[in-house]
Amino acid sequence: MNPLLANSLNRRAFLKNSSYSVGSAALLSLLGQDQATASQWRGTLADKLHYPPKAKRIIHLCMAGGPSHLETLDYKPELAKLSGKGMPTSFTEGQQLAQLQGNRNQLKCLGPQHEFKRYGKCGRMMSSAFPNIGSIADEIAVINSMHTEQINHDPAHTFMNTGSVIPGRPSMGSWLLYGLGAETDELPGYVVMTSSGGGQDQPIAARQWHSGFLPSKFQGVQFNSKGDPVHYVNNPAGVTRADQGELLETINQMNRMLGYRQNDPEIATRIAQYEMAFKMQTSVPGLMDVTEEPKKVLEEYGATPGDGSFASNCLLARRLAERGVRFIQLYHRGWDHHGGVKKGIETVSRHVDKATAALVKDLKARGMLEDTLIIWGGEFGRTPMAQGSGRDHHIQAFSLWMAGAGIKGGTTYGSTDELGYAVAQDGVSVHDLHATILQQLGIDHHRFTYKFQGLDFKLTGVESAKVVKKILSNS
Amino acid sequence: MRFTSLTFLTTCAGALAAPLSYNRDIRPILSENCFACHGPDKASREAKLRLDIREAAIEKEAIIPGDLKKSDLIFYINAEDEDEIMPPPESHKKLTQAQKDTLAEWIKQGAPYEAHWSFIPAVRPDVPALGENHPIDNFIKAGLKGSGHEMSQPADKATIDRRISFDLTGLPLHLTGTSDPDKLLASPHFGERMAVFWLDLARYADTAGYHSDKVRDVTPYRDYVINSFNKNKPYDQFVTEQLAGDLFKNPTLENYVASAFNRINQVSEEGGIQDKEYIAKYYAERVRTTSGAFLGATMGCAECHDHKFDPFTAKDFYSMQAFFSDIYEKGAYTGNGSYNKGADIKNHPGFKLGKFGPTLNVPSPEQEKALVKIQEEKRALEATTKKESPELLSAFNKWSNELLGKIGSSKPQDVVILEDAELPLGGAKTVTSNVHSGSLARIQTSGELSQHIVDANKKPVTLTEGDTLYTWVWLDPKNPPKQLMLQFHGKNWDHRAWWGEDLIPYGKGSKKADHYKVGKLPATGKWVRLEVPAKSVGLPAGSKVTQLAYTQFGGSVLWDQAGRHTNDSNAVLAGLPEKSRKALLNVKKGKPTDQDRKELLTHYRTIAPSLAPARKKIAELTKQEEHLKTNTRSTLVTLSTVPRTIKLLPRGDWTDDSGEVLLPSTPEFLSSEGQPSKERLTRLDLAKWITAKENPLTARAFTNRVWALFFGTGLSRDLQDLGNQGQWPTHPELLDWLSVEFVESGWDVKHLVKLIITSKAYRQSSNASPQLMEEDPYNNLYARQNPRRLPAEFIRDNALAVSGLLNPQLGGASARPYQPAGYYAQLNFPKRKYQQHNDENQYRRGVYMHWQRSFLHPMLAAFDAPAREECTAARESSNTPLQALNQLNDPTFVEAARVLATELVAEEKAIEPRLLVAFQRLLNRPPSGEEETLLTELFNKQLKRYKAAPDDAKKLLSIGLTPLPDKVDPVDLAATTTVTRALLNLQETITRY
Fold it and tell me: Which terminal CB of chain A, N or C, has fewer other CB atoms within 10 Å?
């Protein structure tokens, strides 16, 4: 029934049977179409990776809002002792503060609001507010010495995603598509989903998944839990899939006829794009329909189909990973705890804890964890100083974890001072993190560049970044 | 300011046969491979060697002209040892054998250097005498010499006509009806077409950009750009008005509107941001935009270090920032931000300080007239209320005596602060059926947090000892709130009382007066009085209350009268303004002055029953006046005030105060040294420098970009950067000739455009021979035209125009076409819902579409329109499945298809003649036999299909706002719509060949 799903042979057949007099150039360009589908998502590094890759894909669980490292991953008993007492000025003098800048002289410590316990064989101290993440302690490598340059949400996300605070630079996912291409021609190679709950919803701009100066085919595509899952993916009212199929076949035939007359390589690409669009019209709704998942799986994730929750998104992330999507980014907006950090953490944990662990375990059970890199963390951390009952933004130190794809589970890397204010040992910059991610994908970040405005731009910026080797099992 | 030639580079005329050109052959190699470590940036220079200056390279013996053996450069590039070879392995750069040979040949030829081509003022070259009438064609022909190729044949007339119409107006021939360049250049759509290009450079958008990405009106600037191109404003004037229109001697409204250019950068109002950091961001962005938009230079790198490839220094970067340091603005558009020290909007009559700084109302001529009329009427009425009459005086006496009698009563009493008049403020909903007092109550319903600030009174309420604050509320028993909070504004908002659960974030965690817990929620289903002692919320006697906020978490609540319960024996005076109160007390004491009487009488006029009709009329007029003003567009505007101090920020670090203080100054290597520096230079001086005819970059950058509008590529390929890392032009003499012609014509934009499109080169076919395609894939010879997919805006315009839906209105507020629901769900502060236009604004051109920086309309984003966060000189032209989905399913295109089909069905009975009409409109040609067969087949299949399911036909035909016409067969129309959908989706439709 569906002529569009016909393979290239049919197109050759069309060519043979066509009544057009076909010049050799047109013939060449028409045969070129066969490669167009396959090659359009091929990355520039596809056959020439710098190292054997450990990861084929990435799932970035972006905990948006700035998760407190002091209530999640960074165990600070000394801070508990000083709770309610003045923050030693030796820590904060001359340092950048966000909303606390007005109270510079009356800063008080706020002890960790949740108890820490030992988890896993590795025995790492982790917050008891996230028992399920605790249960995968041996799968994950924690970095407690992250630091960043931007103290406000919007630029900090931009920096985390693009390695630059100047808007218009490509996001991590776009870089990966550019370098590695995608393994699916039925879905976008870079998919973004969002959820919220647990704190005030800071806005997230589409620039976070934009392709910047890279061609727009590399930009992230946002999947929505309400309305069309992808913009315009559903047929107009009164148009069935068969109608749309006939329409598309006509469009492509017309474009092929144009291809005989006009020497323009874009025509072949356009035909391929219409084919992919048509496939997406089935594959996207198919992907989003989780009713086919066993009840047990839904329960493990805590997902109710169609609720737009982080849990549902985690399940969809696994389905996307199975279908060859290269970069999957889930934003959970719920971590901006200026006030009531204790309760806020409890609430956000209800949204993310179970599903996060379920995703890691599910991938492991399916043998996919070994080539899926999972990153869990936010754009910055939070102050050891109190802001009322909460904590302010903090860039000197924060924590995140990674798992899968050659990451040495159970390791803890880097540390902060006794109050969790600044990095004490083995600082990891955002660029270092990017370099590490690229390394796991088989890319030497020094050699991964794109020319723009006359310059060789890199995800990892101008300064030299270093790979965090100690958390990698291949070092 | 004067320009001097570049003294640091030596020009050496190569006298050898077939000499290499430094700019064409050598500089690209050195720049790409060597300058990063051996170039202009001192900080990263290795071995103290720089290769960008001939003397320096010779002094270090890297180059000994004519002597390959003694030249270290030759040794190192050929070294085999990893520790010796240049470029070093860790740079991941490698010279090819051909590049090595070229460098060697160049040293043999004496290693002549040339200044970088774009940094030398352009000199008009001779036009090659190759027998063409048009100078451009002679230059193109000269480039073809020896290539074995010739210019392609002109495209057929139908193709050229369609090409010219799109290129000059962004609209199809069907709408413009002509391909006559003069007519099209005179059409107002020319300005719209050029604006699409300019607005990318100027990073024009409808929203602030960062974080909450709120709307702020700058649409008058967009219209200024359109009008300027339509008026053919000389380009130098255009540039000057944008950078410094506010500094003109007597700036016109237009000059001020133009100056918005400096203010449409992204700004932030995110909580907790620091003024200084964001000022640093804004200044840096302005230098990037100014250098990018006007000079085609990338000064951005110099924010942190001297440019590695061009002679821009970090000092140049910050000195250029200093030109903008007088701009009246904040870094943080929050309570923490502050305007330039000493800035005062009172010194700028006619301007206001809006949410995002200085703004200016920009009324249309009709609005201006209406306003004058209202104001005249108002003045006349006000004069009548000021008359004294015996009746008025006697009523006044009666009133004041009554009041005097009541003063001193010591009974505790309620004194109203807020009632009916204030309750609907802020656009709140009100009810009239269930009220506590007066005739209105305010209703607030919310899923989560809901806060409404209500002005307490124009006159602040002064509290007295023992006062209690109260408000009447009614809680919906079916949907009770979780928490109620009353917030009072004294000197700040830190005066809060709350009932119920602790969910509202304001003051959360505190147990002090900024978060005073009163108790449980009151009973539901009846009017109850919330009360809190003023002292408990930190408002002792003598405090003033200026505002109140009704705040709740969840539920549905009616809010009514608020007030204070007081023992104040003079409470009866509470409703009086401060001065009248004092005056009345003086009367009571028996010591009234004339001033007191005057004061009281003045107040009495505002309440006297006899003057009520006049007051009512004045109030109506004021309302009309306000309505007019709020419906008047405004724009952000540049105002010059006390300059901030600009320091060089080491490594771009805004927290580092150690850098030297810099005054405004243009890049050192491009300006003369002996410039007068007695007076501080201004943005006007900057504009003069940019538009000086000796400035080597300005005209080249613009000419190169205009060329690209009509050929798809620039003569120098990188439209962003004409510097060392840019591209050596394919036709350097042509670019210089055009630039000089442009300047000497008086910066005449239409002249430049006409010159380009009247050339044979422009009119060539874009359908190249296979041999030409293979031998010159990037069209460096310009022996053909380039096919070009239309920019996003014109794809939309085309669909609307061919279907007859397009609203051709020029200028005005931004338009909001259909957009997927929930697209702004990730935005916050405030949360918002996109409101599409349901009137003729739905069908406006793409250039007028609402430009939300953080979530650009998906259609614009899919077709490569930039978010305009930064200056953009070139759009990508991508080809993606999202584009296909958009064209297929976006209601804009489905509606255009069905409206086009409606016209076809009305005009012609059979499918064949319908196809003919549609093809002419869309493609300016008839269909071929095969095309007709294919589309007729589609039509017939669809006819059958919709005959079987006429309801589906009706569904398809009700997409979009346009009503379904009566007396039309829905089955026929739906099948025809499928055909027109196919046509709108064709590559040929969205491409100009």
Answer: N
Which residues contact residue B291 at a Cβ distance below 8 angstroms, ignoring those fewer than 6 apart?
B297, B298, B299, B300, B320
Interchain CB distance below 8 Å, A243 and B787: no
CATH topology of domain A41-225+307-471: Alkaline Phosphatase, subunit A (3.40.720)
Q: Does residue B207 sit at the A interface (CB-CB below 8 Å)?
A: no
B986 inside 8 A of chain A by CB: yes
CB-CB contact of B955 with B879 (8 Å): no
Q: Does the beta carbon of B376 lie under 8 angstroms from any beta carbon of chain A?
A: no
A230 CB within 8 Å of a chain B CB? yes
- Report CB contact under 8 Å: A168, B720: no
CB–CB contacts below 8 A, A to B: 276
Which residue ranges form the domains of chain B, and what is each CATH number?
22-115 (no CATH), 234-361+640-691 (no CATH), 411-490+499-568 (2.60.120), 891-992 (no CATH)
The residue in chain B having the minimum alpha-carbon distance to the alpha carbon of residue A95 is B655
Distance from CA of B448 to the nearest CA of A (A): 11
The residues spanned by each domain of chain A are 41-225+307-471, 229-291
| Residues facing B519 on adjacent strands | B499
Report CB contact under 8 Å: B298, A455.
yes
A residues 397-436 near B, CB within 8 Å? none
CB contact under 8 A, A231 and B858: yes
Are the CB atoms for B839 and B865 separated by under 8 Å?
A: no
Q: How far is CA A157 from CA A165, A221, B21, B284, in A?
A: 9, 17, 46, 20
CA distance, residue A120 to nearest chain B CA (Å): 35
Chain A residue numbers touching B891 (CB-CB < 8 A): 236
Inter-chain residue contact B768 with A452, CB threshold 8 Å: no
Q: Quick check: B918 contacting A, CB < 8 Å?
A: no
Prior bond to B830 cis, omega within 30?
A: yes
- In degrees to the nearest 10, what's the CA dihedral of A430, A431, A434, A435? -140
Tell me the residues of chain B between 778 and 807 that have a Cβ less than 8 Å away from chain A: 787, 789
CA distance B310 to chain A (A): 11
Angstrom distance (rounded) from CA B773 to CA B322? 49
Torsion of CA B384, B388, B389, B391, to 10 degrees: 100
ipTM of the complex: 0.76
- Residue A121, min C-alpha distance to chain B (Å): 38
Per-residue pLDDT of chain A (475 residues; tens, 9 = 90+): 343 333 333 333 333 333 333 333 333 333 333 344 434 457 888 888 999 999 999 999 999 999 999 999 999 999 999 999 988 888 888 777 777 776 777 889 999 999 999 999 999 999 999 999 999 999 999 999 999 998 888 889 999 999 998 877 899 999 999 999 888 888 889 999 999 888 777 888 888 888 888 877 788 888 987 778 899 999 999 999 999 999 999 999 999 999 999 988 889 889 988 998 999 998 898 998 888 899 999 999 999 888 889 999 999 999 999 999 999 999 999 999 988 899 999 999 999 999 999 999 999 999 999 999 999 999 999 999 998 889 999 999 999 999 999 999 999 999 999 999 999 999 999 999 999 999 999 999 988 988 877 778 889 988 789 999 999 986 4
DSSP states of A270-317 as a string? HHHHHHHHHHHHHHHHHHH-GGGS-HHHHHHHT--TTS--HHHHHHHH
Model-level pTM?
0.76
Determine whether the interchain pair A238/B953 forms a contact, defined as Cβ–Cβ distance below 8 Å.
yes
CB–CB of B991 and A239 under 8 A?
no
- Residue B223's H or E segment, with its range, is helix B219-230
Q: What is the 3-state secondary structure (H, E, C) of A148-185?
A: CCCCCHHHHHHHHHHCCCCCCCCCHHHHHHHHHECCCC
